[in-house]
Amino acid sequence: MSKSETTLSKLLVESKCSQECKDDLLSSLPRDRGFFAEHLYQYQGFWYTPNLLKGVLYSQKHFQAKDSDIILVSNPKSGTTWLKSLVFALVYRQEFKTPLESHPLLDNNPHTLVPFIEAFDFNAQDTSPRIFSTHIPLGSLPESIKESSCKVVYCCRNPKDAFVSLWHFMKSLFLKDMVGCTMEEMVSGFCRGSSVYGPFWDHALEYWKESQANPKKVFFVMYEEMREKPEECVMRIAEFLGLPFTEREIEDGVLDGIIKLCSLENLSKLEVNTTGKLVNGMETKAFFRKGETGGWRDTLTPLLAEEIDKMTEEKLIGSSFRFFC
Ligand code: PAP
Protein backbone atom coordinates (compact mmCIF):
# COMPACT_ATOMS: atom_id res chain seq x y z
CA MET A 1 0.00 0.00 0.00
CA SER A 2 1.38 3.46 -0.85
CA LYS A 3 1.80 6.11 1.85
CA SER A 4 -1.18 8.14 0.63
CA GLU A 5 -3.34 5.00 0.59
CA THR A 6 -2.31 4.22 4.16
CA THR A 7 -3.36 7.69 5.27
CA LEU A 8 -6.60 7.43 3.37
CA SER A 9 -7.33 4.06 4.90
CA LYS A 10 -6.60 5.33 8.40
CA LEU A 11 -8.78 8.38 8.07
CA LEU A 12 -11.74 6.89 6.28
CA VAL A 13 -12.08 4.19 8.90
CA GLU A 14 -11.62 6.40 11.92
CA SER A 15 -14.93 7.59 13.29
CA LYS A 16 -13.47 10.84 14.59
CA CYS A 17 -12.84 11.95 11.03
CA SER A 18 -15.77 14.25 10.13
CA GLN A 19 -18.00 13.54 7.15
CA GLU A 20 -16.55 16.60 5.45
CA CYS A 21 -13.04 15.25 5.92
CA LYS A 22 -14.10 11.83 4.59
CA ASP A 23 -15.68 13.50 1.56
CA ASP A 24 -12.42 15.33 0.93
CA LEU A 25 -10.50 12.09 1.09
CA LEU A 26 -12.88 10.39 -1.28
CA SER A 27 -12.54 13.25 -3.69
CA SER A 28 -8.82 12.47 -3.96
CA LEU A 29 -9.71 9.13 -5.62
CA PRO A 30 -10.70 8.58 -9.26
CA ARG A 31 -14.50 8.80 -9.45
CA ASP A 32 -17.11 7.52 -11.88
CA ARG A 33 -20.89 7.51 -11.91
CA GLY A 34 -22.43 4.74 -9.85
CA PHE A 35 -25.63 2.75 -9.92
CA PHE A 36 -25.93 1.55 -6.35
CA ALA A 37 -24.77 4.93 -5.09
CA GLU A 38 -24.33 8.19 -6.88
CA HIS A 39 -20.61 7.65 -7.37
CA LEU A 40 -18.06 4.86 -7.41
CA TYR A 41 -14.46 5.41 -6.31
CA GLN A 42 -11.40 3.60 -7.57
CA TYR A 43 -9.05 2.18 -4.97
CA GLN A 44 -6.10 -0.11 -5.72
CA GLY A 45 -7.45 -0.54 -9.24
CA PHE A 46 -11.05 -1.56 -8.35
CA TRP A 47 -14.31 0.36 -7.95
CA TYR A 48 -16.45 0.79 -4.82
CA THR A 49 -19.34 2.74 -3.38
CA PRO A 50 -18.22 4.87 -0.40
CA ASN A 51 -19.72 2.35 2.05
CA LEU A 52 -18.12 -0.67 0.44
CA LEU A 53 -14.79 1.13 0.32
CA LYS A 54 -15.06 1.84 4.01
CA GLY A 55 -15.63 -1.86 4.63
CA VAL A 56 -12.63 -2.82 2.50
CA LEU A 57 -10.38 -0.39 4.34
CA TYR A 58 -11.73 -1.50 7.71
CA SER A 59 -11.08 -5.15 6.96
CA GLN A 60 -7.59 -4.35 5.63
CA LYS A 61 -6.85 -2.70 8.93
CA HIS A 62 -8.59 -5.00 11.39
CA PHE A 63 -9.23 -8.45 9.96
CA GLN A 64 -6.90 -11.03 11.49
CA ALA A 65 -7.05 -14.33 9.65
CA LYS A 66 -6.35 -17.58 11.48
CA ASP A 67 -4.60 -20.46 9.76
CA SER A 68 -7.77 -22.52 10.04
CA ASP A 69 -10.04 -19.89 8.42
CA ILE A 70 -11.89 -20.51 5.18
CA ILE A 71 -12.46 -17.48 2.97
CA LEU A 72 -15.04 -17.66 0.18
CA VAL A 73 -14.47 -15.12 -2.56
CA SER A 74 -16.43 -14.11 -5.64
CA ASN A 75 -17.34 -11.27 -7.91
CA PRO A 76 -20.85 -10.06 -6.96
CA LYS A 77 -23.62 -12.29 -8.33
CA SER A 78 -21.32 -15.18 -9.16
CA GLY A 79 -22.65 -17.82 -6.77
CA THR A 80 -21.73 -16.39 -3.35
CA THR A 81 -24.94 -17.40 -1.58
CA TRP A 82 -24.79 -20.94 -2.94
CA LEU A 83 -21.10 -21.39 -2.15
CA LYS A 84 -21.68 -20.13 1.40
CA SER A 85 -24.43 -22.67 1.99
CA LEU A 86 -22.46 -25.57 0.48
CA VAL A 87 -19.25 -24.87 2.37
CA PHE A 88 -21.10 -24.27 5.64
CA ALA A 89 -22.99 -27.55 5.22
CA LEU A 90 -19.93 -29.59 4.26
CA VAL A 91 -17.66 -28.17 6.97
CA TYR A 92 -20.22 -28.75 9.72
CA ARG A 93 -21.63 -32.02 8.39
CA GLN A 94 -20.78 -33.89 11.61
CA GLU A 95 -22.49 -31.32 13.83
CA PHE A 96 -25.54 -30.91 11.60
CA LYS A 97 -26.44 -34.10 9.89
CA THR A 98 -28.75 -34.50 6.91
CA PRO A 99 -31.60 -35.49 6.37
CA LEU A 100 -32.53 -32.64 8.49
CA GLU A 101 -35.01 -31.18 10.78
CA SER A 102 -32.90 -28.67 12.57
CA HIS A 103 -30.11 -27.58 10.25
CA PRO A 104 -29.03 -23.91 10.66
CA LEU A 105 -29.53 -23.38 6.92
CA LEU A 106 -33.24 -24.06 7.38
CA ASP A 107 -33.77 -20.94 9.42
CA ASN A 108 -30.79 -18.76 8.60
CA ASN A 109 -29.91 -17.18 5.28
CA PRO A 110 -26.40 -18.27 4.14
CA HIS A 111 -25.23 -14.63 4.39
CA THR A 112 -26.06 -14.68 8.09
CA LEU A 113 -24.09 -17.87 8.70
CA VAL A 114 -21.09 -16.79 6.64
CA PRO A 115 -20.49 -13.05 7.05
CA PHE A 116 -18.68 -10.75 4.64
CA ILE A 117 -15.45 -9.46 6.14
CA GLU A 118 -16.09 -6.04 4.62
CA ALA A 119 -19.42 -5.85 6.48
CA PHE A 120 -17.58 -5.17 9.76
CA ASP A 121 -19.04 -8.13 11.69
CA PHE A 122 -16.16 -10.57 11.48
CA ASN A 123 -15.67 -10.65 15.23
CA ALA A 124 -19.05 -12.31 15.70
CA GLN A 125 -17.78 -15.64 14.24
CA ASP A 126 -17.11 -18.04 17.07
CA THR A 127 -17.21 -21.35 15.19
CA SER A 128 -14.17 -23.40 14.31
CA PRO A 129 -13.12 -23.32 11.59
CA ARG A 130 -14.39 -19.82 10.92
CA ILE A 131 -15.92 -19.32 7.48
CA PHE A 132 -15.97 -15.84 5.97
CA SER A 133 -16.71 -14.43 2.58
CA THR A 134 -15.65 -11.40 0.63
CA HIS A 135 -15.81 -9.75 -2.77
CA ILE A 136 -12.44 -8.04 -2.20
CA PRO A 137 -10.01 -8.43 -5.13
CA LEU A 138 -6.85 -10.46 -4.58
CA GLY A 139 -4.46 -7.52 -4.37
CA SER A 140 -6.57 -5.73 -1.75
CA LEU A 141 -7.17 -8.66 0.60
CA PRO A 142 -6.14 -8.03 4.21
CA GLU A 143 -2.47 -8.95 4.63
CA SER A 144 -3.26 -11.62 7.21
CA ILE A 145 -5.24 -13.61 4.62
CA LYS A 146 -2.20 -13.65 2.36
CA GLU A 147 0.27 -14.39 5.14
CA SER A 148 -1.64 -17.07 7.06
CA SER A 149 -2.34 -20.60 5.87
CA CYS A 150 -6.07 -19.97 5.60
CA LYS A 151 -7.74 -21.35 2.50
CA VAL A 152 -9.50 -19.40 -0.22
CA VAL A 153 -12.29 -20.76 -2.43
CA TYR A 154 -13.15 -18.56 -5.41
CA CYS A 155 -16.40 -18.93 -7.35
CA CYS A 156 -16.49 -17.48 -10.84
CA ARG A 157 -19.45 -16.99 -13.19
CA ASN A 158 -19.68 -15.91 -16.80
CA PRO A 159 -19.79 -12.11 -17.03
CA LYS A 160 -23.10 -11.83 -18.90
CA ASP A 161 -25.06 -13.90 -16.37
CA ALA A 162 -23.37 -12.13 -13.46
CA PHE A 163 -24.21 -8.75 -14.99
CA VAL A 164 -27.84 -9.70 -15.60
CA SER A 165 -28.13 -11.09 -12.09
CA LEU A 166 -26.83 -7.79 -10.71
CA TRP A 167 -29.29 -5.84 -12.83
CA HIS A 168 -32.27 -7.82 -11.50
CA PHE A 169 -30.90 -7.71 -7.96
CA MET A 170 -30.72 -3.94 -8.07
CA LYS A 171 -34.22 -3.69 -9.49
CA SER A 172 -35.67 -6.07 -6.92
CA LEU A 173 -34.10 -4.22 -4.00
CA PHE A 174 -34.29 -0.60 -3.18
CA LEU A 175 -33.14 0.69 -6.52
CA LYS A 176 -36.27 0.55 -8.65
CA ASP A 177 -35.34 3.93 -10.13
CA MET A 178 -31.69 2.88 -10.59
CA VAL A 179 -30.52 6.47 -10.12
CA GLY A 180 -31.96 7.13 -13.58
CA CYS A 181 -29.76 4.49 -15.16
CA THR A 182 -30.56 2.59 -18.33
CA MET A 183 -29.30 -0.92 -19.02
CA GLU A 184 -27.12 0.48 -21.83
CA GLU A 185 -25.43 2.81 -19.34
CA MET A 186 -24.94 0.05 -16.85
CA VAL A 187 -23.42 -2.29 -19.47
CA SER A 188 -21.13 0.50 -20.50
CA GLY A 189 -20.05 1.08 -16.86
CA PHE A 190 -19.58 -2.68 -16.36
CA CYS A 191 -17.40 -2.90 -19.48
CA ARG A 192 -15.19 -0.01 -18.53
CA GLY A 193 -14.75 -1.72 -15.17
CA SER A 194 -16.65 0.66 -12.99
CA SER A 195 -19.20 -1.55 -11.33
CA VAL A 196 -18.99 -2.64 -7.69
CA TYR A 197 -15.71 -4.54 -7.16
CA GLY A 198 -15.03 -4.22 -10.91
CA PRO A 199 -13.35 -4.66 -13.32
CA PHE A 200 -15.15 -8.01 -13.23
CA TRP A 201 -12.59 -9.72 -15.50
CA ASP A 202 -9.49 -8.53 -13.61
CA HIS A 203 -11.07 -9.77 -10.37
CA ALA A 204 -11.61 -13.29 -11.73
CA LEU A 205 -8.34 -13.46 -13.65
CA GLU A 206 -6.20 -12.49 -10.67
CA TYR A 207 -7.71 -15.25 -8.53
CA TRP A 208 -7.50 -17.74 -11.37
CA LYS A 209 -3.79 -17.02 -11.81
CA GLU A 210 -3.26 -17.33 -8.08
CA SER A 211 -5.09 -20.69 -8.05
CA GLN A 212 -2.69 -21.91 -10.75
CA ALA A 213 0.40 -20.60 -8.98
CA ASN A 214 -0.67 -21.59 -5.50
CA PRO A 215 -3.21 -24.45 -5.71
CA LYS A 216 -2.98 -25.27 -2.01
CA LYS A 217 -4.05 -21.73 -1.10
CA VAL A 218 -6.69 -20.89 -3.71
CA PHE A 219 -9.29 -23.20 -5.21
CA PHE A 220 -11.10 -21.88 -8.27
CA VAL A 221 -14.52 -23.17 -9.24
CA MET A 222 -17.04 -22.11 -11.86
CA TYR A 223 -20.70 -21.53 -11.01
CA GLU A 224 -21.64 -23.24 -14.28
CA GLU A 225 -19.58 -26.31 -13.39
CA MET A 226 -21.32 -26.47 -10.01
CA ARG A 227 -24.69 -26.35 -11.81
CA GLU A 228 -23.62 -29.16 -14.14
CA LYS A 229 -21.80 -31.45 -11.70
CA PRO A 230 -22.53 -30.36 -8.14
CA GLU A 231 -21.37 -33.65 -6.56
CA GLU A 232 -17.99 -33.52 -8.23
CA CYS A 233 -17.45 -29.85 -7.38
CA VAL A 234 -18.45 -30.23 -3.74
CA MET A 235 -16.17 -33.25 -3.39
CA ARG A 236 -13.27 -31.28 -4.85
CA ILE A 237 -13.93 -28.33 -2.53
CA ALA A 238 -14.08 -30.70 0.44
CA GLU A 239 -10.76 -32.28 -0.55
CA PHE A 240 -9.16 -28.87 -0.99
CA LEU A 241 -10.31 -27.92 2.50
CA GLY A 242 -8.82 -31.11 3.91
CA LEU A 243 -12.27 -32.52 4.69
CA PRO A 244 -12.79 -35.19 2.01
CA PHE A 245 -15.98 -37.21 1.94
CA THR A 246 -15.46 -40.85 2.84
CA GLU A 247 -16.95 -43.62 0.72
CA ARG A 248 -19.19 -44.45 3.62
CA GLU A 249 -20.51 -40.88 3.74
CA ILE A 250 -21.24 -41.01 0.04
CA GLU A 251 -23.04 -44.35 0.37
CA ASP A 252 -25.01 -42.95 3.29
CA GLY A 253 -26.18 -40.02 1.14
CA VAL A 254 -24.38 -37.29 3.09
CA LEU A 255 -23.09 -35.59 -0.07
CA ASP A 256 -26.48 -35.86 -1.79
CA GLY A 257 -28.18 -34.49 1.31
CA ILE A 258 -25.95 -31.42 1.32
CA ILE A 259 -26.56 -30.76 -2.35
CA LYS A 260 -30.33 -31.05 -1.91
CA LEU A 261 -30.30 -28.88 1.19
CA CYS A 262 -28.34 -26.14 -0.61
CA SER A 263 -30.20 -26.31 -3.91
CA LEU A 264 -31.81 -23.15 -5.22
CA GLU A 265 -35.15 -24.97 -5.24
CA ASN A 266 -34.88 -25.84 -1.55
CA LEU A 267 -33.29 -22.68 -0.13
CA SER A 268 -35.48 -20.29 -2.08
CA LYS A 269 -38.68 -21.85 -0.64
CA LEU A 270 -37.70 -21.49 3.02
CA GLU A 271 -39.50 -18.89 5.05
CA VAL A 272 -36.21 -17.25 6.06
CA ASN A 273 -35.44 -16.75 2.38
CA THR A 274 -38.88 -15.62 1.26
CA THR A 275 -39.91 -13.13 3.91
CA GLY A 276 -36.68 -12.63 5.89
CA LYS A 277 -34.31 -9.69 5.98
CA LEU A 278 -30.58 -9.45 6.65
CA VAL A 279 -29.31 -7.24 9.47
CA ASN A 280 -28.61 -4.53 6.89
CA GLY A 281 -32.29 -4.58 5.91
CA MET A 282 -31.88 -6.36 2.55
CA GLU A 283 -34.67 -8.77 1.70
CA THR A 284 -33.26 -12.29 1.58
CA LYS A 285 -35.46 -13.27 -1.38
CA ALA A 286 -33.37 -10.94 -3.57
CA PHE A 287 -30.51 -13.47 -3.48
CA PHE A 288 -32.53 -16.20 -5.19
CA ARG A 289 -33.79 -15.90 -8.74
CA LYS A 290 -33.40 -18.30 -11.67
CA GLY A 291 -29.83 -19.52 -11.28
CA GLU A 292 -29.54 -20.33 -14.97
CA THR A 293 -26.52 -20.69 -17.18
CA GLY A 294 -27.10 -18.53 -20.25
CA GLY A 295 -30.17 -16.89 -18.68
CA TRP A 296 -28.77 -13.54 -19.84
CA ARG A 297 -30.53 -14.11 -23.17
CA ASP A 298 -33.88 -13.13 -21.57
CA THR A 299 -32.55 -9.72 -20.54
CA LEU A 300 -29.66 -8.58 -22.74
CA THR A 301 -30.15 -7.45 -26.33
CA PRO A 302 -27.73 -9.04 -28.83
CA LEU A 303 -25.94 -5.69 -29.06
CA LEU A 304 -25.37 -5.41 -25.32
CA ALA A 305 -24.30 -9.05 -25.12
CA GLU A 306 -21.80 -8.35 -27.89
CA GLU A 307 -20.42 -5.37 -25.98
CA ILE A 308 -19.71 -7.60 -22.97
CA ASP A 309 -18.29 -10.37 -25.20
CA LYS A 310 -15.89 -7.91 -26.84
CA MET A 311 -14.58 -6.81 -23.47
CA THR A 312 -14.22 -10.44 -22.39
CA GLU A 313 -12.22 -11.21 -25.53
CA GLU A 314 -9.98 -8.21 -24.93
CA LYS A 315 -9.36 -9.03 -21.29
CA LEU A 316 -8.47 -12.64 -22.06
CA ILE A 317 -5.80 -11.86 -24.64
CA GLY A 318 -2.67 -13.74 -23.61
CA SER A 319 -4.47 -15.92 -21.07
CA SER A 320 -5.57 -19.54 -21.37
CA PHE A 321 -8.45 -18.85 -18.98
CA ARG A 322 -11.96 -19.11 -20.45
CA PHE A 323 -15.38 -18.30 -18.96
CA PHE A 324 -18.33 -20.59 -19.59
CA CYS A 325 -20.57 -19.09 -22.30
P1 PAP B 1 -24.23 -11.88 -3.98
O1 PAP B 1 -22.95 -11.63 -4.68
O2 PAP B 1 -25.08 -10.64 -3.81
O3 PAP B 1 -24.07 -12.62 -2.69
P2 PAP B 1 -24.79 -14.27 -5.43
O4 PAP B 1 -25.32 -15.25 -4.47
O5 PAP B 1 -23.36 -14.38 -5.80
O6 PAP B 1 -25.12 -12.80 -4.93
O7 PAP B 1 -25.59 -14.36 -6.78
C1 PAP B 1 -26.96 -14.53 -6.86
C2 PAP B 1 -27.19 -15.50 -8.00
O8 PAP B 1 -26.96 -16.84 -7.51
C3 PAP B 1 -28.61 -15.45 -8.50
O9 PAP B 1 -28.50 -15.75 -9.89
P3 PAP B 1 -29.59 -15.28 -10.99
O10 PAP B 1 -29.90 -13.84 -10.71
O11 PAP B 1 -28.95 -15.50 -12.32
O12 PAP B 1 -30.75 -16.16 -10.79
C4 PAP B 1 -29.26 -16.58 -7.71
O13 PAP B 1 -30.43 -17.09 -8.30
C5 PAP B 1 -28.14 -17.61 -7.69
N1 PAP B 1 -28.29 -18.52 -6.56
C6 PAP B 1 -28.59 -18.23 -5.26
N2 PAP B 1 -28.64 -19.34 -4.52
C7 PAP B 1 -28.37 -20.37 -5.35
C8 PAP B 1 -28.31 -21.80 -5.17
N3 PAP B 1 -28.55 -22.34 -4.00
N4 PAP B 1 -28.01 -22.54 -6.25
C9 PAP B 1 -27.78 -21.99 -7.46
N5 PAP B 1 -27.83 -20.66 -7.69
C10 PAP B 1 -28.14 -19.86 -6.65
UniProtKB/TrEMBL annotation:
GO terms assigned for molecular function: sulfotransferase activity
Protein EC: 2.8.2.-
Pfam families: Sulfotransfer_1
Domain Sulfotransferase: 67-318
Domain of life assignment: Eukaryota
Broadest EC class assigned to this enzyme: transferase
Protein family (similarity comment): Belongs to the sulfotransferase 1 family.
Name of the featured protein: Sulfotransferase
Organism whose genome encodes this protein: Raphanus sativus
Source lineage: Eukaryota, Viridiplantae, Streptophyta, Embryophyta, Tracheophyta
